[in-house]
Design goal:
The chain is an all-alpha fold. It has one domain: Alpha/alpha barrel (Glycosyltransferase), CATH 1.50.10. The chain has twelve helices and no strands. Helix 1 runs antiparallel to helix 2. The termini are far apart.
Length: 365
């Protein structure tokens, strides 16, 4: 997700600054290829793990924290779909728009399954406590928000207006499954922060996660409005002014969500600054994607207004994301070389339970 959003940001900045289009576009393609390699490698390794050791799937899905990260699978895939649509479709033509469309339908189905299934799993199987809640509760829900935004990107390149219309309407519905539910979780999370204070040092980076639904939700509703402005009149959908209404409404909703995102950005920065030191772990990747999608929403606001303020601010946010990517990537490589980076919480807890059982057996003997 973090690598994918960097590639998308670089592509957006290449269109925002034509004078640097060539170099930024090459960099975006480099990160796109790197993202495909990382996603493929991690997906294959994960699939093999659950195929070779099927019992680990049940352990993972029943874990109250680790299972939530299933939502990152469709979100990571969505960044590949977006870049394929933005880079490959214009160059390749032919059937490539429908390849992107097919990938998007798969991503949308998995995203909705995560958005519906994992929260229900939390209600029925997981043992949750309010004082230990983190913003990771948002991960399976934001998957739908990301899929909706990706649907707008794919719809913009479909040659058949009817197919584009189906994609737009479906994306609006998917957006509606994710954003309101994310707001509900954010209200619960705010109450948790107010009552039990900031999360522990190990998961403090999770305070950035609420930027995800605000940034991607705002970006997605603007992109859907832009495509609806074109497709609704072509397909004679609803009313001759329906496309214009959805376009203006999308911008209005987006700028309100952007303002709400500013609140969470302040909370996140204040939380990080209040902690002098916190350990490096895989959670540091939580810096990149939420800030990245917030940067995309900012850049898009600057393009739609048009506004130099939003464009410059979006560029600043985007540059911070790229810098963070290099910092976190370097830390990840360093810790992986030491063998201390990747772990499975569900297996660690199983090992502890086995040790406790063995100790109890020795005591009884």
């Amino acid at each position: 997700m973090g690598t994918g959003i960097v590639s998308i940001l670089l592509h957006s900045l290449s269109t925002l600054y034509p004078g640097h289009h060539g170099s930024l576009n090459v960099l975006s393609i480099v990160f796109f290829i790197l993202n495909v390699i990382l996603f493929s490698l991690i997906f294959i390794v994960s699939a093999l793990r659950y195929l070779i050791y099927p019992a680990t799937w049940k352990l993972m899905i029943n874990h109250p924290v680790q299972s939530l990260f299933l939502g990152t699978l469709p979100m990571g895939f969505a960044t590949i779909i977006n870049m394929f649509t933005l880079v490959c479709v214009p160059r390749w033509g032919g059937a490539s728009p429908y390849i992107a469309w097919g990938m998007w339908w798969i991503d949308a189905a998995v995203s909705v399954a995560c958005c519906f299934g994992l929260p229900f799993q939390m209600m029925t199987k997981h043992k949750n406590r309010h004082d230990t809640m983190t913003a990771a509760w948002l991960l399976p829900i934001v998957a739908s928000v990301v899929a909706a935004a990706s649907g707008a990107v794919v719809a913009s390149v479909l040659p058949n207006p009817r197919h584009a219309l189906i994609t737009i309407i479906t994306s609006y519905v998917i957006w509606g499954t994710g954003v309101p539910l994310a707001l509900v979780v954010m209200a619960i999370y705010f109450h948790r922060l107010a009552v039990y204070k900031l999360p522990p040092h190990e998961v403090i980076v999770s305070v950035f996660l609420p930027l995800g639904p605000m940034g991607q939700g705002g970006y997605g509703i603007m992109e859907l409005g832009k495509v609806a402005l074109k497709i609704f009149p072509e397909t004679e959908t609803l009313h001759p002014a329906a496309g214009e209404i959805m376009y203006v409404l999308g911008f209005g909703v987006a700028i309100v969500m952007w303002g709400f995102g500013l609140v969470w950005l302040f909370f996140a920065l204040a939380s990080i600054l209040s902690r002098q030191k916190f350990p490096f772990n895989m959670g540091w990747w939580g810096f990149t994607f939420p800030i990245g999608v917030f940067a995309m929403a900012t850049i898009t606001l600057g393009q739609e207004l048009p506004s130099s303020f939003f464009r410059i601010l979006g560029t600043v946010f985007g540059s911070c994301v790229m810098l963070l990517w290099f910092v976190v990537a370097a830390g990840t490589v360093k810790e992986m070389a030491r063998g201390r980076m990747i772990e499975a919480p569900c297996l660690r807890e199983l090992e502890r339970a086995s040790q406790r059982g063995a100790e109890k057996g020795r005591q009884e003997a």
